[in-house]
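Figure 2 data, in text form.
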Amino acid sequence: MEPEVQYFSPDGIVNASRTSGSHVNSTETAVPHITASYDSSVISKILGVVPFLGDNEDNPLALRKISSAEGLELYFLNQTRANEEKIAKDKALNSERKNFDFTSTESGKGLYNVESQKVSAPLTNGGSHLPAMMPENQVFSLDTATGYSQSRSGTDVASTFSTTNIQVTGVDEPDFVKNDGKYIYIISNKNLTIVDAFPPQNAKIDSQIPVEGDVSDIFLNGDRLVIFTGKNGQGWIKPAGSVAPVPSSEYQTHALVYSISNRAHPQLQRDISIPGKYQNARMIDGDIYVLNQESRNSGDYHMPVIYDGKREIPIRNIRAPQVPPDNYVFYSLTSFNIHNDAQPTAESFLLGRDSTLYVSTGNIYIAYKNQANNPGSLPTYKDSVVHRFGIKDGKISYKSTGTFPGYLLNQFSLDEYEGNLRVATTIDEPAATGGRSNGVYVLDPDMVMIGSLDHLASGEKIYSARFMGDLLYLVTFKTMDPLFVIDLSNPKNPGILGELKIPGYSDYLHPYDKTHLIGIGKDTAPSPFGFSTTGLKIALFDVSNLTDPIEVDHVVIGEKGSDSEVLNDHRAFLLDQSKNVMAIPVQEVIIGNYGRSPEFPQVWKGTYVFGIDPKAGFIEKGRIAQDNNSWIYNYDQGSAVKRSLLMDSILYTISHQNIMATDINDLSQPLANITL
């Protein structure tokens, strides 16, 4: 008699027995016939499918371990059969769905079992928990804002230099360019180019290394540099039921670790190959965490493998929710140290495709839209799922799973503070005015929601968010730009402190100091269709009175179509308060000059440099054109400025074609122009 097996279904654990099926040709894969009986009380380790025990035991979205290809095959086979059974129930539930109340349950606490804080009017400082001024214990690191490091000693090395503009202090983010106060390391035209950049009078290219594949980002730490690149490769997989590996072609990401102690001759030290496409990465004290995404063909159930050089390192488990997301992909989260040769560690899991990564010094959060296909369940708000992984010294451990209403804009919609996760989301819901609203939610370490602020700015959506200590600055937009100041000092009872409505919107918010905030986005003007965007807008907000934020100053650059890399990538922003320098890469569209028509505008590509007076606003210091053909009709991205950095008083503006070096004390004349 064939042994009985157990596997997960939407209703619990399925007890199933394998029985002999019909004859199968030798070239076909035998699929066992399964007879199922449901028993939701059974939790056990069967065929490598292990439920997560603890607080997540009853959470169908929590990640269970699948530790074999056979277990993975049964996991998907189970879901296919369960879906077929559920389809028959849909017609009977249609009337119940139509009459379902989306806004409340019998308990009055809503679908997430949290007392909803509905917004009617802004709260005032009459409440004991709402400070009239910035709290004294308001903490955020200006190291994150300025991104400055001490350099190495020596007359040919800068005493200070800027680093990548990051979100979380102590958590470095990858980029296509890094520097160490002497050299600039940049990926351009599928080359790693090392430029001896300081002092600029002697600037030259020290070395240039071709890199195969789809080259993306780099990390720099001391005399080690990591390049992430991806390409199709030949590997070996062990399918379910196979006794021997078979060759397989799959896309792989390579983390190439170089020793750069000799900048003229970098040496490849290590090649770590990870299945799937590179998504993002972080580095904490030399430990690098890489997130990859892998799409597989139907019927591919092999367990993932990473390679450290030629050494094979199997990933023993795949973590998956009880029911696969409707639009699922495989993820790998791999860690390794940039300085030593310790074996990489990795976790693999099955999640939704549309993911957002947020990393603190102790946790990794991966969030995605919940697209679970549960035909037999009642409809709820469209929500998102978030998984928390603990990290320490390169080790990764799955901790908890939760949900929250709506969807995220980007990584700045997430923030960890005093152990809790705060999220800002936009919710598409027919019941809301205009079909859309926004919310702010607080989840504890177990990813259980403990606080909420619902129905915020109905009819609008979030354009930018910035958490600063126990405050959240939030920009929503439809025709005007409301800047909300939200109090999170009591995580169980978020509330609005103040609101400012001005034309335009901010795509990126950056703290200047404890009482001022910089916003970068687009200006707007009324149109027959509601509004239209005009030029690039830079605004300075005074939030010293949290209940009454004000706009100190704003600058509008160019006309319709003007743009900045900052609007899409926070790493393009540079601020050095000690030197009173803010650098903004700009593509400025001018339509009116020289008889140009709207179809053929002039496009200036370069960098605007400002000083900031918190009381008076922005002071333009100058503009740096990136090439000699800046005033022509040309949207070529190769000459558009993507980044800028500082070494002492030298401002380096960087495109994919060249690097310009200019002294901030005299922006009229560049000191060097390095062609890449």
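Caption note: Residues 69-87 form the longest helix (19 residues).
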